[in-house]
Design a protein that fits this description.
754 residues, 8-stranded mixed beta sheet
C-alpha cells in the first residue's frame, strides 16, 4: 500500500512526526509481495545477510526520496555500511540477485577431523586462497636435485635411495603452492591456474637470526624468568643490517617460469644464497631453500647449541603472495607463508603432537575453530597411537615400549579391534590408556607418563616443573578423555586406505589437506628452541585465520626492543607476536641449525634410561636399525634368534659425528650434515609372525673426519690420527661424549623458585 502526497502543507516531507491524513489521500493497493519462508540458521544465510546494505535510493530517479531527512539517511546509511563492511573484511557490493529460498547446498558433508564442512554447490568465485597456508621446504646439500614435500597426510614411502643424488648428497625438499578460487563461504570451487586465470606470484625469503635475540628459553613459560636473560646476538655489531640476510622479493608467473634466485642478500658483506622460486608445468609455485651452508664471519668454531656469535646459516622464511585476475576481475587473495627448515632425517615419522595439532589447539582456544563435539577415532585418536608406535624406528626406548610386539601394543589388529569400539566392555581399558598420557596438573616432572619426550623447560638434573617433559595439546587430551568415556565416532575400518596423492582427495578438501600434510611433519615438542618453528606459534595474535600467519603491512618498520627482551615487552600490540615480516619465524631458532640438531639427543640422564626421554626423534633420530642388521633380519636361512637380536639392535644415529668432543661433534655436523643417515622404508621378511611387513632402516653410516680447528696447534693432526685409529679399533662411540653440562641441558644456573 502507498499513500500519494496530494497537499504539501498537510503532508510535509521534513516533519516525521506529522501523520498524513488518510481523509485527504487514502492508501492505494499497488502490489502483493510473497516472502518465501526462510531458515535463518541455514548454512550461508548469515554470511549472505551480513553482506547486504540497506539503501533507500535503489529506485528510478523520478522516485528518488527528497527532503532533509532523506538526505541525512543517505549519508548515514552509506557511512555505516562502509564501516561495517571494512571492519568485516567484505567488499561493499550488493549481490546481483536474491539468494534462493531453497538451500543450494548438498546434504553430503565431510571434514578432515573438524576442519570444516564441504559439499557446497555455490560455484561463484569471490576470492582466491593460497594453499598450503604454511608451506615447508628443507635445505639439502645436492646442487641440482630436489623433491616436493608431503602433500597428503599419509604419503606413500619412496624407494630406497630417493632422498640422495648420485653423489650421496641430500636433496632439497621443495614447498609447492596452489591457488584456489572459493565462494562466499570459503569453500573451494576450483583450482586457479594459468589455464583459467592470470596469476602473478611473489615470494620473499629472509634469514634474520644473527640480527635477532639469542635463545635461552621459550619466553611464554614461567621458567623463562629463571633462565639467563634473552639478549641480542652479536651485540657488538652496531650496523644490524649487516647481520640480516634480506634478498629482494621475487616475482614469477605463467607455466614453467625460470628460477629467480634469492642470492642478493648478504651477511657481513658476504653474499648468501637462500634458495630460489619458479613455477612448474601447471603454473604452481615452487619454493626451494638453501643448501645447508653455514659459517662464521671470523672463521671461528661453533661452541654452543643455539647462539654462536658471528655465525649464519641459510634457513629462512617469508610471505607468499599472488595477484589473481579471474574472469576479467581481480580477486582478493589470502596469502600464505613458507618456512625453510633443516632436513628431515625421518621422512615417514610424525611426532606425537605435530605442529598441526598445536595450531589447531591455538585456533580452538581462540574461538576461530570449533571443538569437535565427538572426536573421530580414525582421525583424532588413532594417529596418537600410530605415532607412538612409529617412533620405534628412530628411538630404542619407543621401540621397546610401543614398537613391534612392544610392552604397549596399541596398533596391532587385536588391539585396534578393542580400542576402536565404544562398548562399555572396554571402558576401563580406554581409561587406563588415556590416564597414561601426561597431565601437567598432576604429573609434575616425572619422566614416566607418555609421551616420552622432553619439554620446553628441560634441564639436567630434571627441573621441578611440569614443563620438564612434554604433554599433548589440551585439545588432544580432551579428545582422549571423551574417547575414554566412549563418546567418540566409531569410524575405524581396518581396510581403509588413506589418499596417497592429492588427486585422490576431493577438491573441497584439497586446501586443508595440503596445509595439514605440511604441518604434520613439523615438530611441536620441544621448543628448545625447536626444529622448523618455535614457541611464538602458540600465540593467537600470530594468525589472521586458523593455520594462516598474519602478514605485516608493506613498509612496516618494527620498533626497537632494546638489548634485552621479555615476554611482556614483545607481546604488545604490533610487536613481534603479531603481523610477520620475512625472516620473522626462523629468527627465533638456533644459529646455525646444525649445532642444535646435533645436540638434540635422548636419555641425557643415563641413570634413568639410556634412550628416553628424547628431544626430536621424528626429525632427528636417536637410535636406528642399520643396513647390516637389516640384512641379517632378511636372511631367513639364519637362526631365528640371531635375526631377532639383529632386529632389536639399534645403533646410535650420531655415531658418524665422532667421539673426540662435543665441540668437534657440532662442527662436524655443520660441515657434513648430509653424512647422517636417512631412515627409509624397506620390505620386511616373509615370516610375518616374527617381523613386521615393513622395516625402517638407516640408509648410510659414514664416519666424519673431525673438522680442523683454525686456532688449534700443529699437533692437532696427530690428535686426529689418534681419533681415527681408535675409531678403527673400537668403532665410533659418539654417545660416550659427556653432554650433561652443555648449555642445552643446563638452562637454570641459579635454579628455579621453590
Amino acid at each position: 500500500m502507498v499513500q500519494l502526497r496530494t497537499d504539501a502543507q498537510s503532508m510535509p516531507l521534513d516533519e516525521a512526526t506529522v501523520e498524513w491524513p488518510e481523509s485527504e489521500s487514502p492508501f492505494v493497493h499497488v502490489a502483493t509481495l510473497t516472502l518465501s519462508q526462510q531458515d535463518v540458521a541455514q548454512r550461508g544465510q548469515a554470511e549472505y545477510g551480513q553482506g547486504l546494505a540497506f539503501n533507500i535510493w535503489r529506485l528510478p530517479p523520478e522516485q528518488a526520496p527528497v527532503g532533509s531527512i532523506a538526505e541525512a539517511r543517505k549519508v548515514v546509511y552509506a557511512a555505516g555500511a562502509r564501516a561495517r563492511h571494512e571492519a568485516n573484511g567484505q567488499g561493499l557490493q550488493d549481490p546481483p540477485q536474491a539468494r534462493p529460498a531453497a538451500c543450494p547446498y548438498s546434504a553430503t558433508q565431510s571434514s578432515i577431523s573438524g576442519l570444516g564442512e564441504v559439499g557446497a554447490k555455490d560455484q561463484c568465485i569471490v576470492k582466491a586462497v593460497i594453499y598450503p597456508s604454511i608451506g615447508v621446504a628443507r635445505v639439502g646439500s645436492s646442487e641440482s636435485e630436489w623433491f616436493v614435500g608431503p602433500e597428503v597426510c599419509d604419503p606413500p614411502h619412496h624407494a630406497a635411495g630417493f632422498y640422495r643424488d648420485s653423489k650421496k648428497q641430500l636433496k632439497r625438499q621443495a614447498a609447492r603452492f596452489r591457488v584456489y578460487g572459493v565462494n562466499v563461504l570459503g569453500d573451494i570451487v576450483r583450482e586457479l591456474t594459468p589455464d583459467n586465470a592470470k596469476i602473478r606470484w611473489q615470494v620473499q625469503l629472509a634469514n634474520t637470526k644473527s640480527a635477532w635475540y639469542g635463545f635461552q628459553l621459550a619466553l611464554d613459560i614461567p621458567e623463562a624468568a629463571s633462565a639467563p636473560p634473552t639478549t641480542l646476538r652479536n651485540a657488538g655489531i652496531a650496523d644490524r643490517t649487516q647481520l640480516a640476510i634480506t634478498p629482494k622479493a621475487k616475482v614469477v608467473s605463467g607455466k614453467n617460469a625460470k628460477p629467480k634466485k634469492f642470492d642478493d642478500g648478504r651477511f657481513m658483506g658476504k653474499p648468501v644464497y637462500l634458495g630460489e622460486t619458479f613455477t612448474d608445468e601447471q603454473g604452481r609455485l615452487i619454493v626451494l631453500g638453501g643448501h645447508g651452508a653455514a659459517g662464521a664471519c671470523d672463521d671461528s668454531r661453533a661452541i654452543t647449541f643455539a647462539n654462536n656469535e658471528g655465525w649464519y646459516d641459510d634457513t629462512s622464511d617469508g610471505p607468499v603472495n599472488a595477484e589473481v585476475i579471474y574472469d576479467g576481475q581481480p580477486l582478493l587473495v589470502d596469502p600464505a607463508w613458507v618456512i625453510v627448515g633443516p632436513p628431515n632425517y625421518g621422512p615417514q615419522r610424525k611426532s606425537v603432537r605435530t605442529m598441526w595439532d598445536l595450531m589447531r589447539d591455538v585456533a580452538i582456544k581462540a574461538g576461530t575453530l570449533p571443538m569437535p563435539m565427538r572426536p573421530s577415532f580414525t582421525f583424532d585418536i588413532l594417529p596418537i597411537f600410530e605415532r607412538l608406535a612409529g617412533l620405534q624406528w628412530v628411538n630404542a626406548g619407543f621401540a621397546s615400549g610401543f614398537g613391534w610386539k612392544g610392552v604397549n601394543d596399541l596398533t596391532s589388529a587385536q588391539a585396534l579391534a578393542r580400542l576402536s569400539s565404544a562398548s562399555p566392555v572396554y571402558v576401563e581399558l580406554r581409561r587406563t590408556i588415556a590416564n597414561q598420557f601426561r597431565n601437567d596438573a598432576v604429573d609434575s616432572w616425572s619422566p614416566k607418563p607418555w609421551p616420552w619426550l622432553y619439554g620446553d623447560a628441560m634441564d639436567v638434573p630434571a627441573a621441578k616443573t611440569p614443563r620438564q617433559n612434554a604433554s599433548l595439546s589440551d585439545t588432544q587430551l580432551a579428545m582422549l578423555a571423551e574417547w575414554a568415556r566412549g563418546n567418540f565416532v566409531e569410524d575405524y575400518a581396518a581396510d581403509r586406505v588413506a589418499p596417497r596423492s592429492l588427486d585422490e582427495v576431493p577438491l573441497a578438501l584439497q586446501g586443508d589437506t595440503l596445509t595439514k600434510a605440511a604441518l604434520d611433519f613439523c615438530l611441536a615438542d620441544a621448543f628448545h628452541p625447536g626444529c622448523e618453528m618455535t614457541w611464538p606459534v602458540r600465540t593467537a595474535t600470530m594468525y589472521m585465520a586458523p593455520f594462516r600467519f598474519a602478514h605485516a603491512l608493506d613498509g612496516w618498520i618494527a620498533p626497537a626492543l632494546g638489548e634485552v627482551i621479555t615476554y611482556a615487552a614483545i607481546s604488545l600490540t604490533n610487536g613481534p607476536l603479531c603481523g610477520q615480516q620475512a625472516g620473522g619465524l626462523t629468527r627465533w631458532m638456533a644459529v646455525p641449525w646444525q649445532t642444535d640438531s646435533a645436540s638434540c639427543r635422548s636419555g641425557y640422564d643415563k641413570n634413568y634410561d639410556p634412550y628416553v626421554p628424547s628431544f626430536w626423534p621424528a626429525r632427528v633420530p636417536n637410535q636406528v636399525l642399520t643396513r647390516q642388521n637389516y640384512d641379517v633380519v632378511m636372511d631367513e636361512k639364519k637362526p631365528l634368534g640371531e635375526r631377532l637380536a639383529a632386529f632389536a639392535n639399534r645403533a646410535s644415529w650420531i655415531e658418524p659425528l665422532g667421539a673426540t668432543s662435543y665441540t668437534d661433534q657440532i662442527n662436524n655436523m655443520i660441515h657434513h650434515f648430509d653424512h647422517l643417515g636417512v631412515v627409509e622404508v624397506h620390505a620386511g621378511p616373509s615370516d610375518r609372525e616374527h617381523f613386521p611387513a615393513h622395516i625402517e632402516v638407516e640408509d648410510q653410516h659414514v664416519p666424519i673426519k673431525d673438522m680442523p680447528n683454525p686456532t688449534a696447534s700443529p699437533h692437532s693432526a696427530s690428535h686426529e690420527a689418534l681419533r681415527l685409529q681408535v675409531g678403527a679399533l673400537a668403532g665410533p662411540r659418539a654417545e660416550s661424549v659427556d653432554i650433561m653440562t652443555i648449555e642445552k641441558a643446563q638452562r637454570f644456573p641459579r635454579g628455579l623458585p621453590g
